[in-house]
Amino acid sequence: MYASNLYAPTLREVPAEAEIPSHQLMLRAGFIRKAAGGVYTYLPLAWRTLRKIEQIIREEMDAAGGQEIAMPIMQPSELWKESGRWEVFGDEMFKVNDRHGREFCLGPTHEEIITDLVRNEIRSYKQLPVLLYQIQNKYRDEIRPRFGLMRGREFIMKDLYSFDKDESGLDISYQKMYDAYTNIFNRCGLVFRPVEADGGAIGGSNTHEFTALAQTGESEIAVCTKCDYAANNEKAELALIEAPAETELALEKVATPDTKTIEAVIEYLNLPIEKSIKAVAFEDEHDRLICAFVRGDHEVNEVKLQNAVEAVSLRMADENVITAAGGVAGFMSPIGLDRKKAVVVVDQSVMAMKNACCGANEADKHYINANPQRDFGEAIVKDIRLIAAGDPCPHCGAPVEITRGIEIGQVFKLGTKYSNAMHAGFLDENGREKPFVMGCYGIGVSRTMSAAIEQLHDENGIIWPKAIAPYEVAIVPINAKDEAQMELAETIYQALKNAHVDVLLDDRKERAGVKFKDADLIGYPVRITIGPKAINEDNIETKVRKTGEIFNFTKENYLVKVQ
Ligand code: ATP
Ligand code: MG
Ligand code: MG
Ligand code: MG
């Protein structure tokens, strides 16, 4: 590519609307332009990087047994009504009507479409497992689209769905995806941690978020300083969920199946940590868990259970949070309210902390290393505080650090949530009808590009990891009007191209300073300078963007090296 042909309009000023480095730099370096809030055009440089990220993803998905498909972005409401998510998904869903008034949505995710696909095709356990994926635009009407590609309303996602005949099959598919994600983010050159995330059972093995470490990230994570324990603290965006206007809930009403939402329950109980509350469960006078309200990632579920013991032993993935609630009911003294009792469950990291630490409201003291049941008996527990810096790691006891990160991917054991709701099953070895045991696995492709920039940049611009750089090498002749320089530049350019290096020749008749600035801003990993020294002394200066190291090569070095 010749820079004189490249459509990469760079800006000298930092655009006012951009708050974080990746957003600022992608605008300044000519990667993206805004069409509407959270909706962007990807210019050639961004598109090249995105295609490289996608290619890495494809290779790893295929290696793990995935098959690529393309599902429709427009999805009929009927399927979402079948799964029960048409109403609960809420305002984040873009809905459209066709000319006959039929309702559709623009796919925020594809569980419904794929469950419908597979239920019509797969009949026997012999055809399982099936792993299907796509890389495609997703649509979510985020409350606060921001930070450029980081939180878009239209964004690129890779989503894979696994269908297995049983839980142990799902465990294998899950582990394959977990490993594939580890490979993908390593290959992209990111610093990341897989963290136990919300929605999981006690122990948190049912969902992990892959989090790129970055101070500008929206997720707060607790990371052990010694072992590999890492867990997501409550995410800031959940705090944005507004409590509904209706707050007059009598407890009797709360505990009935037609009860409203967890927000209403939280408001009714006047709980102080509404941001973090994942579930509220109620027990009857015999300590039986009779009702629980759960906040999932996108939805509010309300589930009735017969008793806590049963809840604890439930292993179905869609009831994981209930399991967690049940678990808490099993060990923690609940809030005494008339005859009924409430148990409040906060996020996964706190669940993991259950034996080590718990806060009680008595005189606002916090108790470290307390066992709630043993130490508090029937005391009123109103608050469980979030894990904090310096707290003991729930796995190994070493101090925990609180840091920030960007959720770039998530792997999730769905279990039979969708296959049950949508009657999607197969015949097992004994000819019995069984629901598919499913998993879903997402990667934010466009967000991954942002995350890479958040992690690697300096005051001069982006520093691309080689694997996802739009071009790996930029050749910069200092004076494009100098024939000898241009000729040498062209020779090296062709040699590198022949060696399949992604190379750009900055043939623009700009001052050298301008071209150097642009090369740093765009962030090519390697810059080759062709100036008088290269011509007169056969000394070709080669600079590594990341470290600033300079290597000197001869023309022969280049031509031989790349042959
Ligand atoms: P978040 O918590 O940031 O809202 P999510 O948990 O809702 O993300 P998932 O449903 O898990 O997202 O989607 C899979 C992946 O898609 C996420 O891990 C993230 O990398 C990416 N993603 C989700 N929402 C957006 C968005 N609005 N813009 C860009 N990427 C996104
Ligand atoms: Mg979200
Ligand atoms: Mg999330
Ligand atoms: Mg997620």
Describe the overall structure:
This protein is of the alpha+beta class and 563 residues long. The protein is 29% helix and 27% strand. The strands form eight sheets. Strands 3, 7, 8, 9, 10, 11, 12, 20 and 23 form a nine-stranded mixed beta sheet that branches. A five-stranded antiparallel beta sheet has the order 15-14-13-17-16. Strands 27-26-28-29-30 form a five-stranded mixed beta sheet, with helices on both faces. β29 and β30 form a beta hairpin. α1 crosses α14, α2 (44-63) runs antiparallel to α6 and α2 packs across α14. The model is unreliable at 200-204, 234-260, 272-276, 283-291, 295-365 and 367-384 (pLDDT under 50). One magnesium ion is lined by residues 209, 297, 407, 410.
